[in-house]
Structures are given as C-alpha cells and as structure tokens.
Amino acid sequence: MNRLILLLITLSGASLLAACGEAELIVEAQQLEGVASDDAGGAQGISNLPIRLLPYDRDAIFDSLQAEHPTPEPELPDTLMKLRDAMAAAHAEWTEAEHRWSQVRDSLEKISRELEGLSRASGEYRLLFRDFQDLEPVEAELRRANERAFDKFTELQSEVTERSELVKLEREAWEDEVFAPVDQIIYEKLQELGRNELADTTTAAGVAQFAAKPGKWWVVAHHDLLYEELYWNIPVELKRGEPVRIRLTRENAQVRPKL
Asked: Residue 142, exposed/middle/buried by CB under 10 A (0-12, 13-18, 19+)?
C-alpha cells in the first residue's frame, strides 16, 4: 500500500510538472572529483550550498563590462600568491605535527590511567612504566615540533592577511566602479526574457531540485574551501518531460584563490 501511494504521488507530481509546462533539473554538489554518488563509498554531498538557476549567462555580462572598461583588473601579485602557498603548506605541516603529537600524548595518558590501577610491585606495572618512560621524550619532542610548526604557520598567516588587505581594497574599488551597472543590466535582461531567477539550497545529501521553464539556463554556485573558492557557471538546456541531472565537482569548477 505504501509503495502504491508513493507511486501515485510521484506520478501526480510528474503530471503536475508537465501540466505547468515546466522542466525538471536535479543538481548534485559533490566533495570528490569524478565519483558518482551512487557508487559504493561514493562522493560526499556538499550540504547547505546555495544554488542559483539563472536564465542568462552572468559571466558574459561581467566579461562585457570588464572588456569595456579602460582599466584592467588589478592582478594578484606573484609574491602574495607564493606567500599564500607557503602558508597553506605550513598549515598542512602543523596539522600533521599536531596529529602525531596528539597520538603519542593520548597513549601516555592511557598508560598513566592504567598505572593508577596497578600495584607498583607487579610485573605489569613495571612493563607499563617502562613504556611510559620510553614515550615521554618522544611526546616532548613531538610537542616542541608541533609548537614550531604552529608558530611558523601563524607568522605566515599574519603576513598574508596584512598584504591581502591592501590587494582586496584595490580590487574591490575596481569592481565597484566597473560593475556598477550590473543590477540594471540583469533587471532589463529578465524583463526581456520574461523569466525569473530561481534558487534552492542543497540537502544533507548535496542535492537541489528545480522546476523551470524549458530553455537555456545557467547553474551558478560558490563553495568556499580553506584557501580557495570553487565557482560554477554551467549552462544547461531544459526540456519538458526530459529531467536533467548535473553534478558540481571540483573537475567542472573554476578554482579561484581566496585572500
């Protein structure tokens, strides 16, 4: 009975979609590259990701405005990008150092708890105490290595932050000037097309769904990572009665550095 009800609901929804003259789009946002979500142990979905479905190519609008402006976009200095890469490497080094230290520290704490419940005269106590003594200098050295790695990372982070602020201010001022007309252009474009922008947010499984008028659309999304941003602006042709499924992965994204 439950399957029958589910089938009727599904068919009813499909009929309603067709009656409204709308097409169906399913967007899957995934953490891993080139892995289908239905594979065994497949990619993890990106949850709570805002997805926009636009009836125009936003990149074409921004590119046109940029091409018409006499001043080019301020470039990201190579020195800053190299410094940022060094910071990312230092962060990875610190993370690994902290992981190694925490493992040995946890082992010491476990041995210490076990020793508390043993008689000092027992053979088991002597063996565990020897293990504790062997691990103590290892823990101390790993702790110092972790502290050195952390200091290196925070020093580079401070320098990157300081240099980035100046570059960000310069680029934001340029964008404010160049892209000032963009809202009016988009408004006129929507009036011309007779369509509205659509939006949804991905579920815990990383899925967003749209019902839209048939025609050309663009799927737009941004996903922030630690040191970079993934940006998608993917064209899709929607047709009534032909559901379309697309996947957003690192492979089909523009990878942009974050300042």
From this structure: buried
Among 170, 171, 177, which Cα is nearest to 65's? Answer: 177
Beta bridge partners of 218: 54, 235
Strand, coil or helix: what is 162? helix
Q: Round to whole Å and give the CA distance between 136 and 131.
A: 9
Cβ atoms 233, 58 nearer than 8 A: yes
Element (H, E) at 101: helix 78-116
Residue 97 CA: distances (Å) to CA of 91, 148, 156? 10, 9, 17
Residue 40's pLDDT band (cuts 50, 70, 90): very low
Residues whose CB falls within 8 Å of the CB of residue 93, separated by 6 or more in sequence, listed in order = 149, 152, 153
Tens-place pLDDT, residues 169-181: 999 999 999 999 9
Q: Which residues contact 216 (CB under 8 A, 6 or more apart)?
A: 55, 235, 236, 237, 238
Query: What's the CA gap between 163 and 222, in Å, rounded?
Result: 24
User: Is 86 buried (19+), middle (13-18) or exposed (0-12) by CB count in 10 A?
Assistant: middle
Contact 202, 27 (CB under 8 A): yes
- Categorize the per-residue pLDDT at 42 as very low, low, confident or very high, splitting at 50, 70 and 90: low
Quote the CA–CA distance of 56 and 236 in Å, as a whole number: 11
Query: What domains, with CATH codes, occur in the chain?
Result: 16-55+195-257 (2.60.40.10), 78-178 (1.10.287)
pTM for this model (two decimals): 0.76
- pLDDT averaged over the chain? 88
Percent with pLDDT over 70 in the chain? 88
